[in-house]
Structure formats: C-alpha cells, structure tokens
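Before anything else, study the sequence and fold tokens given here and see whether the fold suits the sequence. Record follows:
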Amino acid sequence: MNQTAGFQTVDFLIVVVYLIVVALIGSLSGGKQRSTKDYFLGGKNIPWWAVAFAIVAAETSTLTFISIPGLAYITNLNFLQITIGYLIGRVAVSFLFLPAYKKGELSTAYALLEGRFGYKTRSYASIVFIFTRVAADGVRLFATSIPLAIIFKTVPFFANYSNLQIYSISIIIITLITLIYTYTGGVKGIIWVDVLQMSIYLGGAIVALIILFDKVPGGLSAVNIFSGGINKFSLINWGFSGGLKGFFSCPYTLIGSLIGGAFLSMASHGTDQLIVQRLLTTKTLKDSQKALISSGIIVIFQFALFLLVGLMLFAFYKGIPVGSEGSIFTKPDEIFPYFIIYNLPVGIKGIIIAGLFAAAMSTLAGSMSSLSSSAMMDLYKPYFGKFNDEKRELVVSRIFTIFWGVILSLVALLFIRVLQSVVEIALGIASITYGGLLGTFLLGVLFKKPDEKAAMWGFSAGIIAMLSLIIIPFLFGISPIVHWTWYTLIGCSVTLLVGNFVTYVKKD
C-alpha cells in the first residue's frame, strides 16, 4: 500500500483542465437564454435519456461516490434494499403525478398545488422545499469538498492550515466554479454536463474496483476475514429479532427499506423541484415517464457498484476501525477518496477525482437552479414581480442563483465537524419534510373534497409530527424511536389523516 505518492502534478493538471472544460461545456451548451422558461426549463426540448442521466447525477453523484462506499465499509449491503423501493416510488410518480405536471404550462412542482388548493399552499410548499433543499444540499456540498480537502493536505503550501480552513477553502472553490456554468448555462447546460459526467464517474468507479481486486489477495473472499464474524455480504435484513421497537428503529430492514425507499422516492421525484424541474424539460409525458423509470434502474446498478467498492476497501484496509486511535480515517466518507489519492496510478486518480468533482458540481448546480426557480416562480413573481418583463425576470433569476450559491456554501461549512456518514444525514434531513410534501400532493390528487385549509393543516401536522419524532429523543438523550427510512411514510400518513379530518369536521 503506497501512501507516499499522493497527488502528483499530472493529476493536478488533469483536475484543473477538466474543471475548466466542464465549466465551458455547461456554459456553451445552455445556449442563449431569453426568458425564465429558457433558463429554468431548457425550452422543453431535452431528450428523455439525457434527463434520466441528469436525474441520477443530481440525486446521487456526490453521496454515492463518497458516502456509500464508506457506509458499506462500516456496515454491509443492507442499504441496497432501499434502491428497490426507489424504483417502486418512481413508477408510482410516473402515473400519479407526471400526467398532472405535463398538463398546461407549469413552471415548478408547486404550481400544481396552486391549481388544486390555492396560492397559499403553493407558497408554503415552496418555502418548505427551500429550507429542506438548503439543509440537505449543504451536506452534499460538504461531501464534495472532502476529496479536494484531502488533496490539499498533500500540498506543502497547506501544511500549516487547520482542518477547518482547508475544508472551507475547498467548499468556496467548488461553489465558485459551479456558479459559473449555472449562472450562464441554465438548466440545459446543467443537464448536458450531467450526461457527460455520469459516464465518467461510473467508469472511474469501475476502474477503481478493478484495481482493488488486483491489490487484494483473494478478492471478495478476503472481506469477511477482517469482519470479526459479522457477515459483510448481508443483503436482506428482516428486522424481526429486536421486537416491535427494534423493527422500526433498526437501520435498513427489508420492509422499512422498501416502504421507506418507495415513499422517499415518491416525495423526492414527485414533489421536489430539484428533480421535477428536470422532468418538466422533456417534450412529452411519455418522455418524462421513460426518463424517471430508467433513472431508477440505473440507480440500483450504481448503488450496487459503490457498495461493492466499499466492501473491497474494507478488505484492502483490513477492517481498520474508523475514528479509532491510530486510524488514518476520522470519518467513513474519507475512505474512498483517500484510497484514490494514495493508491491509484498517476493520471488515473486525477481523472477519477476530476469526474467526481464535475458530477458533484452538477448536483450543486441543479440545487442552485431549482432553488432559484422556486424562489422566482413560486414566491417572487406572484407577490413582487407581476408586472416585470421577461428581461428583468431573467436578471432577477440569475441574482437568485448567486444568492443560493452563497447560502449553500455557508450551510456546508456547518457540517465540517460532523463525523457521521453524510449520506444518512442528507436523507434524514430530506425525510423530515418530504412526508408533508408528499401527503399534500396526494391529498390533492387522490381526494376531491379537501380544500386549501385542510391542505395547510395536514401539511403542517405532517412536519410537526416528524420534528417531534426527532427532537424529543434528542432532548431526552434517548435513541431515535424510528429509523429515518420510516419518516416519509409517517409524515405522509399524518398529513393525509389530518387533511381529511379537517375536511370532515368542516363539512359537519
């Protein structure tokens, strides 16, 4: 195990050139935007397969590349159960929500709620989305900074810099580069960058896996040698051994994963502007459905690949505990980037890290664009910009893009001292509000009687229920009552129950 080579000049040059090229491609492929429709919806003429790749890159690029191998390193393959739920949820969204989205000229996911309930519900949903996306994608931005921070630590110039300073510099650099092509290229530029990058970072992961197999004597058979009797290849966790409480609090049980994954995917891909914005860029409903379902199939393969990388890293490092005395890792998210930088051949490590940065930045770019579109279309335009012309709307939209780039970078700085796997933090944050969002959409799609008052009460109740489940255990210093995989289902159920109850009471 060569731990002295680190990042070489060739690798630095590859990363720098690659990021410049990606920024140029993103800026130029976006074309000239003359309106917010061009800027946020790409003219609604983007091919379905490109949108499918963009969805995968937006939701999993950074977290898959960094956190999933780290998660497999410290646990097993149970996380893969969730991806089956992800596919089920996408199929449901394709036939429940997409037909409504593709009718008319919807600019955001929350315009659908205005048509069903009223403008207050649309504004409320948009605000909830903004807070959720800022928190969750602040985590993602921090995750993106991890490999860059590790690279900087190998450079003599940064020898006297603290961990906090190095991570802060990394976050600022990534944000600035991403802003360049998000500001100039719009969503079309973002999507075409995603298409390029997804194939590169997946190819990089496959190359890394091949090298791991070459470096680990015995290949996969060596994994359980260092596991202390724990089955690292465990795929299905029935979760019945710990009783009823254990069933709901145990991470990644089969039923919890399938239900949680399905409801989380329904919420994230049916109500989250980050994904819905991409689905609105296709020409037809059929194209949107093909893009969404195809992305679910790709995600299963992608998660399986990176979990396998994590198991091989466990064998390569002989099961060194993360964060223990003498360990080279302080958090699981450092393991794979560390392997790339110190154990891959010169040139290959530069290409893989460059692919990671570019794919990760496309996720960040998507966040900036979706936050800007929601703030512009759902909040600013209905209240403050009713009489603006298209030129002014485009200027304001770009100002919003800069604003959210700054906010995301500030939030990312808050997570520097967090040691837990960031993939679980990001999914947990999103799940808190996803239940209320999904429940409100289902209340409008599946039920005819609930009005705006019922929707607002149900939405609020769903969020309050989830906050209570999280805050109460934290305040009393006890273990969480349920695992995050159940959050969306619980929040959604509470929203539907309260919304229908308020409707019933008002009727009487």
About this structure: The domain at 9-29+48-70+78-106+117-507 is CATH 1.20.1730.10 (Sodium/glucose cotransporter).
